Automatic annotation (TrEMBL):
PANTHER family: ADP-RIBOSYLGLYCOHYDROLASE, ADP-RIBOSYLHYDROLASE ARH3. Mg(2+) 1 binds at residues 56-58, 300, 303. Pfam families: ADP_ribosyl_GH. The lineage of its organism: Bacteria, Bacillati, Actinomycetota, Actinomycetes, Micrococcales. Belongs to the ADP-ribosylglycohydrolase family. This is ADP-ribosylglycohydrolase. Signal peptide: none annotated. Keywords: Hydrolase, Magnesium, Metal-binding. The keyword Oxidoreductase does not apply. Gene3D superfamilies: ADP-ribosylation/Crystallin J1. Transmembrane segments: none annotated. Mg(2+) 2 binds at residue 302.
Protein backbone atom coordinates (compact mmCIF):
# COMPACT_ATOMS: atom_id res chain seq x y z
CA UNK A 1 0.00 0.00 0.00
CA UNK A 2 1.06 3.58 -0.43
CA UNK A 3 2.52 5.80 2.25
CA UNK A 4 -0.61 7.92 1.96
CA UNK A 5 -2.77 4.99 2.99
CA UNK A 6 -0.50 4.20 5.94
CA UNK A 7 -0.63 7.83 7.05
CA UNK A 8 -4.42 7.83 6.83
CA UNK A 9 -4.63 4.66 8.94
CA UNK A 10 -2.33 6.09 11.60
CA UNK A 11 -4.02 9.48 11.36
CA UNK A 12 -7.48 8.00 11.80
CA UNK A 13 -6.55 5.93 14.83
CA UNK A 14 -4.34 8.55 16.48
CA UNK A 15 -6.77 11.36 15.69
CA UNK A 16 -9.59 9.44 17.32
CA UNK A 17 -7.47 8.74 20.38
CA UNK A 18 -6.54 12.42 20.74
CA UNK A 19 -10.16 13.53 20.43
CA UNK A 20 -11.19 10.90 22.92
CA UNK A 21 -8.49 11.88 25.43
CA UNK A 22 -9.19 15.62 25.28
CA UNK A 23 -12.94 15.09 25.36
CA UNK A 24 -12.77 12.61 28.24
CA UNK A 25 -11.50 15.42 30.48
CA UNK A 26 -14.94 17.10 30.17
CA UNK A 27 -17.22 14.18 29.28
CA UNK A 28 -19.48 14.54 32.31
CA UNK A 29 -19.37 18.33 32.53
CA UNK A 30 -21.99 20.82 31.35
CA UNK A 31 -20.91 23.66 29.07
CA UNK A 32 -21.15 26.20 31.89
CA UNK A 33 -18.93 23.98 34.03
CA UNK A 34 -16.41 23.67 31.21
CA UNK A 35 -16.33 27.47 30.88
CA UNK A 36 -15.94 27.92 34.61
CA UNK A 37 -12.95 25.59 34.59
CA UNK A 38 -11.22 26.57 31.34
CA UNK A 39 -12.51 30.02 30.43
CA UNK A 40 -15.14 31.37 28.03
CA UNK A 41 -13.82 29.41 25.03
CA UNK A 42 -13.74 26.12 26.91
CA UNK A 43 -11.13 23.37 26.62
CA UNK A 44 -9.11 23.72 23.44
CA UNK A 45 -5.66 22.33 24.18
CA UNK A 46 -3.92 19.79 26.40
CA UNK A 47 -1.86 22.63 27.89
CA UNK A 48 -4.98 23.77 29.75
CA UNK A 49 -5.10 20.53 31.75
CA UNK A 50 -3.18 19.88 34.96
CA UNK A 51 -2.14 16.53 33.45
CA UNK A 52 -2.59 15.14 29.92
CA UNK A 53 -5.45 12.91 31.01
CA UNK A 54 -6.53 9.55 29.66
CA UNK A 55 -8.13 7.78 26.75
CA UNK A 56 -11.50 6.17 27.45
CA UNK A 57 -13.27 3.00 26.41
CA UNK A 58 -13.79 4.64 23.00
CA UNK A 59 -10.15 4.18 22.03
CA UNK A 60 -9.91 0.85 23.81
CA UNK A 61 -12.77 -0.65 21.82
CA UNK A 62 -11.63 0.96 18.56
CA UNK A 63 -8.29 -0.80 18.95
CA UNK A 64 -10.00 -4.09 19.73
CA UNK A 65 -11.99 -3.64 16.52
CA UNK A 66 -8.68 -3.21 14.70
CA UNK A 67 -7.33 -6.36 16.32
CA UNK A 68 -10.31 -8.42 15.22
CA UNK A 69 -9.87 -7.21 11.65
CA UNK A 70 -6.15 -7.97 11.83
CA UNK A 71 -6.93 -11.52 12.93
CA UNK A 72 -9.45 -11.92 10.10
CA UNK A 73 -6.83 -10.66 7.64
CA UNK A 74 -4.24 -13.04 9.07
CA UNK A 75 -6.58 -15.95 8.39
CA UNK A 76 -7.43 -14.65 4.90
CA UNK A 77 -3.80 -14.06 3.99
CA UNK A 78 -3.12 -17.63 5.07
CA UNK A 79 -5.80 -18.91 2.71
CA UNK A 80 -8.53 -19.60 5.26
CA UNK A 81 -11.86 -17.82 5.52
CA UNK A 82 -12.93 -16.59 8.95
CA UNK A 83 -16.13 -15.24 10.44
CA UNK A 84 -15.31 -11.58 10.96
CA UNK A 85 -18.22 -10.94 13.32
CA UNK A 86 -17.29 -13.90 15.50
CA UNK A 87 -13.73 -12.60 15.69
CA UNK A 88 -15.09 -9.20 16.71
CA UNK A 89 -17.11 -10.81 19.48
CA UNK A 90 -14.09 -12.72 20.74
CA UNK A 91 -12.01 -9.52 20.65
CA UNK A 92 -14.62 -7.60 22.61
CA UNK A 93 -14.78 -10.46 25.11
CA UNK A 94 -11.04 -10.10 25.63
CA UNK A 95 -11.57 -6.38 26.26
CA UNK A 96 -14.36 -7.27 28.71
CA UNK A 97 -12.09 -9.69 30.56
CA UNK A 98 -9.51 -6.92 30.89
CA UNK A 99 -12.16 -4.63 32.38
CA UNK A 100 -13.78 -7.17 34.69
CA UNK A 101 -10.85 -9.46 35.48
CA UNK A 102 -12.47 -12.56 33.99
CA UNK A 103 -14.46 -13.81 31.03
CA UNK A 104 -18.23 -14.30 31.41
CA UNK A 105 -18.93 -17.71 32.87
CA UNK A 106 -20.64 -19.12 29.78
CA UNK A 107 -18.42 -17.44 27.18
CA UNK A 108 -15.46 -18.94 25.33
CA UNK A 109 -12.00 -17.82 26.42
CA UNK A 110 -10.01 -17.00 23.28
CA UNK A 111 -6.23 -17.14 23.35
CA UNK A 112 -4.60 -13.80 24.25
CA UNK A 113 -3.03 -11.60 21.60
CA UNK A 114 -0.53 -8.74 21.68
CA UNK A 115 -3.22 -6.18 22.42
CA UNK A 116 -4.27 -7.98 25.59
CA UNK A 117 -0.88 -7.36 27.22
CA UNK A 118 -1.26 -3.56 27.03
CA UNK A 119 -2.12 -2.30 30.55
CA UNK A 120 -3.74 0.95 29.35
CA UNK A 121 -6.45 -1.06 27.60
CA UNK A 122 -7.41 -2.77 30.85
CA UNK A 123 -7.92 0.45 32.78
CA UNK A 124 -11.58 1.08 33.54
CA UNK A 125 -12.48 4.32 31.75
CA UNK A 126 -16.26 4.71 32.08
CA UNK A 127 -17.14 1.75 29.85
CA UNK A 128 -20.59 1.85 28.28
CA UNK A 129 -23.32 -0.04 30.09
CA UNK A 130 -24.71 -1.64 26.94
CA UNK A 131 -21.31 -2.97 25.90
CA UNK A 132 -20.66 -4.47 29.33
CA UNK A 133 -24.13 -5.93 29.84
CA UNK A 134 -24.26 -7.55 26.40
CA UNK A 135 -20.83 -9.11 26.71
CA UNK A 136 -21.56 -10.24 30.27
CA UNK A 137 -24.30 -12.55 29.00
CA UNK A 138 -21.73 -14.74 27.27
CA UNK A 139 -24.02 -14.75 24.23
CA UNK A 140 -23.19 -13.35 20.81
CA UNK A 141 -25.68 -10.69 19.85
CA UNK A 142 -26.92 -10.76 16.26
CA UNK A 143 -29.54 -9.01 14.16
CA UNK A 144 -31.73 -12.09 14.49
CA UNK A 145 -31.09 -12.49 18.24
CA UNK A 146 -30.57 -8.95 19.53
CA UNK A 147 -29.16 -8.11 22.92
CA UNK A 148 -30.20 -4.77 24.45
CA UNK A 149 -32.92 -4.40 21.79
CA UNK A 150 -33.76 -0.81 22.79
CA UNK A 151 -30.18 0.40 23.09
CA UNK A 152 -28.80 2.79 20.49
CA UNK A 153 -25.94 4.19 22.55
CA UNK A 154 -22.98 5.75 20.79
CA UNK A 155 -20.78 2.85 21.93
CA UNK A 156 -21.86 1.14 18.73
CA UNK A 157 -20.51 4.01 16.61
CA UNK A 158 -17.34 5.24 18.29
CA UNK A 159 -15.54 1.87 17.79
CA UNK A 160 -16.46 1.46 14.10
CA UNK A 161 -13.98 3.61 12.16
CA UNK A 162 -11.63 0.65 11.49
CA UNK A 163 -14.17 -1.04 9.23
CA UNK A 164 -13.82 1.88 6.84
CA UNK A 165 -10.04 1.47 6.73
CA UNK A 166 -10.27 -2.02 5.23
CA UNK A 167 -8.89 -2.14 1.66
CA UNK A 168 -9.94 -4.49 -1.13
CA UNK A 169 -13.55 -4.83 0.04
CA UNK A 170 -16.77 -3.42 -1.38
CA UNK A 171 -18.71 -0.53 0.16
CA UNK A 172 -21.52 -2.90 1.06
CA UNK A 173 -19.10 -5.26 2.80
CA UNK A 174 -17.91 -2.40 5.00
CA UNK A 175 -21.52 -1.50 5.75
CA UNK A 176 -22.41 -5.08 6.64
CA UNK A 177 -19.36 -5.57 8.85
CA UNK A 178 -20.25 -2.45 10.83
CA UNK A 179 -23.92 -3.37 11.19
CA UNK A 180 -23.09 -6.87 12.43
CA UNK A 181 -20.37 -5.53 14.71
CA UNK A 182 -22.81 -3.09 16.28
CA UNK A 183 -25.39 -5.83 16.83
CA UNK A 184 -22.99 -7.66 19.14
CA UNK A 185 -23.88 -5.22 21.92
CA UNK A 186 -26.66 -2.89 20.72
CA UNK A 187 -30.05 -3.95 19.39
CA UNK A 188 -31.59 -0.77 17.99
CA UNK A 189 -31.48 -0.15 14.22
CA UNK A 190 -30.15 3.39 14.75
CA UNK A 191 -27.10 1.90 16.47
CA UNK A 192 -26.51 -0.49 13.59
CA UNK A 193 -26.92 2.02 10.78
CA UNK A 194 -25.15 4.77 12.71
CA UNK A 195 -22.08 2.56 13.02
CA UNK A 196 -22.31 1.66 9.33
CA UNK A 197 -22.72 5.31 8.30
CA UNK A 198 -19.57 6.23 10.21
CA UNK A 199 -17.57 3.35 8.76
CA UNK A 200 -18.82 4.24 5.27
CA UNK A 201 -17.75 7.86 5.75
CA UNK A 202 -14.24 6.73 6.70
CA UNK A 203 -14.10 4.42 3.66
CA UNK A 204 -15.09 7.24 1.31
CA UNK A 205 -12.36 9.50 2.68
CA UNK A 206 -9.61 6.88 2.72
CA UNK A 207 -10.34 4.78 -0.35
CA UNK A 208 -12.35 7.05 -2.64
CA UNK A 209 -10.47 10.28 -1.92
CA UNK A 210 -13.84 11.94 -1.32
CA UNK A 211 -13.99 15.44 0.06
CA UNK A 212 -15.72 15.99 3.38
CA UNK A 213 -18.91 17.50 1.99
CA UNK A 214 -19.20 14.84 -0.70
CA UNK A 215 -18.68 12.01 1.78
CA UNK A 216 -21.25 13.50 4.14
CA UNK A 217 -23.78 13.82 1.34
CA UNK A 218 -23.22 10.23 0.22
CA UNK A 219 -23.62 8.89 3.75
CA UNK A 220 -26.82 10.88 4.19
CA UNK A 221 -28.23 9.45 0.95
CA UNK A 222 -27.52 5.92 2.17
CA UNK A 223 -29.05 6.64 5.58
CA UNK A 224 -32.24 7.89 3.94
CA UNK A 225 -32.74 4.40 2.53
CA UNK A 226 -32.90 2.85 6.01
CA UNK A 227 -36.55 3.19 7.01
CA UNK A 228 -35.93 1.30 10.26
CA UNK A 229 -33.81 4.19 11.59
CA UNK A 230 -35.31 7.48 10.33
CA UNK A 231 -33.71 9.41 13.20
CA UNK A 232 -30.26 8.77 11.72
CA UNK A 233 -30.98 10.49 8.41
CA UNK A 234 -32.78 13.29 10.23
CA UNK A 235 -29.77 14.02 12.46
CA UNK A 236 -27.26 13.77 9.62
CA UNK A 237 -29.29 16.19 7.50
CA UNK A 238 -29.59 18.52 10.47
CA UNK A 239 -25.81 18.43 10.96
CA UNK A 240 -25.11 19.26 7.31
CA UNK A 241 -27.71 22.04 7.28
CA UNK A 242 -26.44 23.51 10.56
CA UNK A 243 -22.86 23.52 9.29
CA UNK A 244 -24.04 25.44 6.26
CA UNK A 245 -25.32 28.19 8.55
CA UNK A 246 -21.92 28.65 10.21
CA UNK A 247 -20.73 28.14 13.76
CA UNK A 248 -23.37 28.20 16.49
CA UNK A 249 -23.16 28.35 20.28
CA UNK A 250 -22.83 25.03 22.17
CA UNK A 251 -26.38 25.33 23.52
CA UNK A 252 -27.75 25.76 19.99
CA UNK A 253 -25.61 22.85 18.81
CA UNK A 254 -27.04 20.39 21.31
CA UNK A 255 -30.56 21.73 20.85
CA UNK A 256 -30.32 20.97 17.13
CA UNK A 257 -28.32 17.74 17.13
CA UNK A 258 -28.50 16.30 20.64
CA UNK A 259 -25.85 15.69 23.27
CA UNK A 260 -24.20 12.73 21.61
CA UNK A 261 -25.10 9.98 24.05
CA UNK A 262 -26.87 7.95 21.35
CA UNK A 263 -25.61 6.79 17.98
CA UNK A 264 -27.17 9.25 15.57
CA UNK A 265 -26.46 12.24 17.83
CA UNK A 266 -22.78 11.43 18.34
CA UNK A 267 -22.18 11.08 14.62
CA UNK A 268 -24.16 14.25 13.86
CA UNK A 269 -22.29 16.41 16.39
CA UNK A 270 -18.90 15.19 15.14
CA UNK A 271 -19.88 15.63 11.50
CA UNK A 272 -21.09 19.17 12.15
CA UNK A 273 -17.83 20.03 13.94
CA UNK A 274 -15.78 18.75 11.00
CA UNK A 275 -17.87 20.47 8.31
CA UNK A 276 -18.35 23.85 9.96
CA UNK A 277 -14.60 24.32 10.46
CA UNK A 278 -13.64 23.30 6.92
CA UNK A 279 -11.67 26.09 5.27
CA UNK A 280 -9.18 26.34 8.10
CA UNK A 281 -5.74 27.35 6.89
CA UNK A 282 -3.96 24.05 7.56
CA UNK A 283 -4.94 20.46 8.37
CA UNK A 284 -3.67 20.96 11.93
CA UNK A 285 -5.76 24.10 12.38
CA UNK A 286 -8.80 22.29 11.02
CA UNK A 287 -8.21 19.48 13.49
CA UNK A 288 -7.84 21.86 16.43
CA UNK A 289 -10.88 23.93 15.49
CA UNK A 290 -13.11 20.93 14.87
CA UNK A 291 -12.12 19.22 18.10
CA UNK A 292 -12.82 22.38 20.07
CA UNK A 293 -16.40 22.35 18.79
CA UNK A 294 -16.78 18.59 19.10
CA UNK A 295 -15.96 18.46 22.83
CA UNK A 296 -17.23 21.78 24.22
CA UNK A 297 -20.91 21.15 24.88
CA UNK A 298 -23.31 19.46 27.26
CA UNK A 299 -22.94 15.80 26.43
CA UNK A 300 -20.71 12.88 25.51
CA UNK A 301 -17.59 14.90 24.73
CA UNK A 302 -15.14 12.02 24.43
CA UNK A 303 -17.23 10.13 21.89
CA UNK A 304 -18.00 13.19 19.76
CA UNK A 305 -14.34 14.18 19.99
CA UNK A 306 -13.17 10.69 19.11
CA UNK A 307 -15.41 10.45 16.05
CA UNK A 308 -14.38 13.90 14.80
CA UNK A 309 -10.72 12.99 15.30
CA UNK A 310 -11.15 9.73 13.38
CA UNK A 311 -12.74 11.59 10.47
CA UNK A 312 -10.10 14.27 10.11
CA UNK A 313 -7.23 11.84 10.68
CA UNK A 314 -8.63 9.65 7.90
CA UNK A 315 -9.04 12.68 5.63
CA UNK A 316 -5.67 14.35 6.11
CA UNK A 317 -3.51 11.59 7.52
CA UNK A 318 -0.95 12.39 10.19
CA UNK A 319 -0.56 15.96 8.89
CA UNK A 320 -3.65 16.89 10.91
CA UNK A 321 -2.21 15.86 14.28
CA UNK A 322 -0.74 18.68 16.40
CA UNK A 323 2.77 17.66 17.54
CA UNK A 324 2.22 19.00 21.05
CA UNK A 325 -0.94 16.92 21.31
CA UNK A 326 0.95 13.85 20.17
CA UNK A 327 3.44 14.48 22.97
CA UNK A 328 0.51 14.40 25.40
CA UNK A 329 -1.09 11.26 23.96
CA UNK A 330 -1.50 8.56 26.59
CA UNK A 331 -1.50 5.46 24.40
CA UNK A 332 0.49 6.61 21.39
CA UNK A 333 2.72 3.53 21.12
CA UNK A 334 -0.20 1.16 21.58
CA UNK A 335 -2.18 2.89 18.84
CA UNK A 336 0.84 2.86 16.54
CA UNK A 337 1.43 -0.79 17.37
CA UNK A 338 -2.09 -1.72 16.29
CA UNK A 339 -1.82 0.45 13.18
CA UNK A 340 1.41 -1.35 12.24
CA UNK A 341 -0.22 -4.74 12.66
CA UNK A 342 -3.13 -3.69 10.49
CA UNK A 343 -0.86 -2.29 7.79
CA UNK A 344 1.29 -5.43 7.80
CA UNK A 345 -1.77 -7.44 6.76
CA UNK A 346 -2.97 -5.02 4.06
CA UNK A 347 0.10 -4.78 1.82
CA UNK A 348 -1.45 -6.94 -0.90
CA UNK A 349 -4.97 -8.00 -1.91
CA UNK A 350 -6.39 -10.82 0.17
Amino acid sequence: MTTDFASRVRGCLLGGALGDQLGYAVEFSRWDQIQERFGPDGLRDFSQLDSPGHISDDTQLTLYTVDALVEALEWANGGTAADETALLWLAYLRWYAGQEGAFPESAPEPAPRWIDAQPVLKQRRAPGKACLSALATGDMGTLARPLNPQSKGCGSVMRSAPFGLLPFVTPETVYTFAVNGSALTHGHPAAHHGAAAFASLIRLLVHENADLAGAASAVLSRAEQETSAPELAARLRAAIDLAGQGAVAPAELTAALGEGWVAEEALAVALYAVLVTEGSTTPEEHFRSALAIAINHDGDSDSTGSIAGNILGAFYGEAALPPSWMDAAEAREVVLGMAARFLAQTEAPV
